Amino acid sequence: MQRNPGRSSVPAPLILAAVLAVASATSAAEEEGGDGARAGEASREESDLEASLRRLRESLDTEGKEATLRVGGVFIADTVLWDRRNERHSGLEGSAARPSVDFRWRDDLRVHAEADLLGADARGHLLEAWAEWRPDPSLRIRAGRMRFALGTEFATREEDLPLAGYAFTSWLDGRHDAGAAVEGSLGDGALWGQASFASGHGFGLDGRARRSPWVGARVALRPFRGLADRGAWAGRALGGWFVGGGAALLGDFDDPVVLETPLGSTVFRTDDLGGDGGRWLHLDTGFAAGPVAAGLEVVRGSADGVPGRVGAAFDANQLTAWTASTAVSLTGERREWRDGAWKAPVPGSPGGAWEFALRYSNGDIDRDLFHQGFTTYDPSSQEFRTFSTLLGWRPAEGVRVAVGWVKVIADDSLTVFGGPGPRSFPRSGDDDRDSSFVLRLEISF
User: Which residues of the chain have pLDDT under 50?
Assistant: First the structure.
């Protein structure tokens, strides 16, 4: 879905106003805190911003003896400077406005609902609504509309990602859907696994319907977990290493294939394929050791029995992508991989946390989808890759200011990058590529 000129149906200044309203609320909370609150700040060595955000969270929580109700959300505003040839307009964009409500009963029951006010990445403005039961601290059973991920990146919420946006591996097999999942771990996290069922009443990262039911499983092994907190850095890296993967069998493949860059430019898009079935295979490995983390994900998918528009039915068995990324906490905060996802570092000093991240992602899609007329060589390219960097500052937990750069190179000329039309070798020299910058303000609580 091409979001032009911005990503939201709600005016971007409204998103920025929401972010500033949160900041104003934190200031009001600080004034109400009085001398006792300032004493608390001193004892915990909190910055003014950290103390204010903590008071805001506390003011939004309703706690009983055994139950807690929390009101929160994620708000992201981007200022994007597009490449001069990009058809989109530079300026302020609302990237996320997702208020949420979370109810917990003891440690056993949790109910979560999260809206998507922009409507860009969800259907009906409802992103998630699920209930979770924990019969044991190491076992979770969840049902409702939720995130289904076969790899680490899409299992990670956007506010915890070290970069802006998701890579092609997440775009291929990630979705939100109505279904159920069972998740558990053994050996203090040395073995982690998840089994899932999605009903086919969901949507992809582009917000379009995903109608294919799936049965999936994901597993990750940390064979040297006992070394994670001791020894030299090499030993800690080995202790923080994880390896695993996921797989999903699809009851049919009545879905489109859509891939966008991290900043939302479409580089591949098809109609619904209408296949008889399909599968996703997802390899996932990486490590988190002290202030450094890195990951590698490889996806291969297949849509089987797709009705041919030119000739007989065919199998589109080259739906592939791979992503490599690394992130470093420049101020020394510990990076963490837990329960199948990355976790954002918590600032270790009143000066906040600085981080730097790199990511390369490549997508390579079956040529038969072009030959059979499910897409064309504009708006789609057969192969494409992105290189992303980001420098971020987290002055307090739940707040980030970042500047990033995304370079895109496609095999084919694309109108979105200034190309003149259908398939061609690049006629203007650079209409198969894009180089754009983003300044991001993000608040989550």
Answer: 1-13, 15-16, 18-20, 22-44, 421-429
Give the chain's domains with CATH numbers: 12-444 (2.40.160.10)
Q: What is the dihedral of CA 119, 414, 420, 378, to 10 degrees?
A: -80
Pick from 146, 245, 244: nearest CA to 198: 146
pLDDT value at position 65?
75
In this structure, what DSSP letter does residue 104 have? Answer: E
DSSP assignment of 134-203? EEETTEEEEEEEEEE-SSHHHHS-GGG-SSSS--HHHHHH-EEEEEEEEEEEETTTTEEEEEEEE-S-EE
> Coil, helix or strand for 301?
strand
Other beta carbons within 10 Å of 251: 16
Residue 130 token pair: 């699920």
What radius of gyration, in Å, describes the C-alpha atoms of the chain? 22
Cβ neighbours of residue 163 under 8 Å, at least 6 residues apart? 262, 325, 327, 357, 359, 388, 389, 390, 404
Residue 346: DSSP 8-state: P
Cα–Cα distance between 29 and 57 in angstroms, integer?
A: 10
What pLDDT is stored for residue 189 in this prediction?
Answer: 85
My answer on whether omega of the bond before 307 falls inside 30° of 0, hence cis, is no
**Which amino acid is it at 374?**
F
Helix (H, G, I), strand (E, B) or coil at 259: strand
Q: pLDDT tens digit string along 345-390?
A: 999 888 899 999 999 999 999 999 999 999 998 888 999 999 999 9
